[in-house]
Amino acid sequence: MAARISRRKEPFFSPPLLSRIYNLCPYLKRLKHTCSKEGEVVRLQDITWRSIARERSYDPATWKTLDSSSAGIVNSDISSPTWTVLKILQRKGFDAYLVGGCVRDLLLKRKPKDFDIVTTASLKQIKKNFHHSRVVGRRFQICHVQIRDCTVEVSSFNTTGRHVKERETTHSSQIPTNCNEKDFIRWKNCMERDFTINGLFYDPFNRVIYDYIDGIKDLKTYAHCYSCPFIIHRRFRIAARLGLRFSCEITAAIHELSSSIMTLPKSRLLMELNFMLAYGAAEPSILLLQEFKLLEILLPFHAAYLANQTKSQPTRSSIMLMDIFSNLDKVLSADRPSDSTLW
User: CDD domains under this entry (predicted)?
Assistant: First the structure.
């Protein structure tokens, strides 16, 4: 990574700053007509991320709720161990919601691979109420609660976020006027999540879905990302599984930052590749990797084979490897993955 950076002719931005710049595409466009490229950099360095995030995203008028029954979600779709955790937290006086990919999948009438819970209880209180549990993670601490033979991931509003040690409990003085405290806490949490479509909350007791950043709208169109360049694999995985498309801004950002995935440890790359290929979306995943010039980096033998076959057989349907992927996808799914040794 250091060698690659040293060869750059342009001023180098650290990954956190670079990801923020890509998140601010609308603001880049606004500044473009008044600043040169060098001038833009100076202007952007003077702008704080927090103030822009508030300007761009804090708008209670855009917050939406959706009755789960109108979306076709039934609580019987929630796994029994997850229900056990939700009910115990509620009985102890804490708010508890399903959040992230499981809400997304329920809206799409797909069976979630797993269920994540976020609660107003602290990690210490979660551990106190569930004897078979343990806190895991360093930067993003969560609690693994063991219910029979299943593990349920439970996070706390007080500890989720990019800088766990810097977070404090939301005080009433921090909450804007005419804003419900619970809404404000949920909004702050969803702003820290990677995709708008993963920022949806579901209250199964009141049967309400909370959407603060147009996640439902984006779910119908494209995966819109607010995160760093090191989750490109995850962007592809979600887009491939759900048949989504990227916005123009995200497409440009991926092309620019795609080589950064090689900074990930080999074990992480293998894990991410397995998530892409072993859960019923191998064919679209391969096509996305190919489109963004990543296949030749991650799977060079596959890339060389496909490139060679494409020259002699222009139609993808006639390529044996893609036929194999396509047929495998028909028998695999998020809850029925193949063994990783296949890859």
Answer: NT_ClassII-CCAase
